[in-house]
Design goal:
alpha/beta; 5-stranded mixed sheet; about 110 residues; globular
Length: about 110
């Protein structure tokens, strides 16, 4: 968890509560880490941590949007801030898609 929090704190993201979310609870078998928390301004934050060797493409990013909506349905409220910590090569079109949807992309 420290490897996730340090890059976020370096960019000014501080949390009241920060906990992992098990993707199995919504029926997903994705191999990524997902964290859910509340920042100091009482906004809900969702953090996806992607660590892989192959490039992240648009198709995967669209699947992340679906995962986010399923997580929102699980909790019953809208998540306002979405962050992706990426330890993988990222396609430029996928990055543009993430940023157009309001996601923050942090390459570690």
């Amino acid at each position: 968890m420290k490897s996730v929090l340090e890059p976020l704190q370096a960019r000014g993201y501080l949390f009241k509560r920060f906990e992992p979310f098990a993707l199995k609870t919504i029926g997903s078998r994705k191999r990524m880490e997902v964290y859910h928390g509340i920042d100091l301004k009482n906004r809900y934050v969702l953090v996806f941590v992607v660590d892989k060797k192959s490039r992240v493409l648009q198709k995967e990013v669209r699947e992340w949007f679906d995962l986010k909506s399923r997580i929102e349905n699980h909790y019953g409220y809208k998540i306002l801030q979405n962050i992706v910590l990426i330890r993988a090569p990222l396609c430029s079109k996928a990055k543009a898609l993430l940023e157009s949807e309001g996601w923050k992309v942090i390459a570690v």
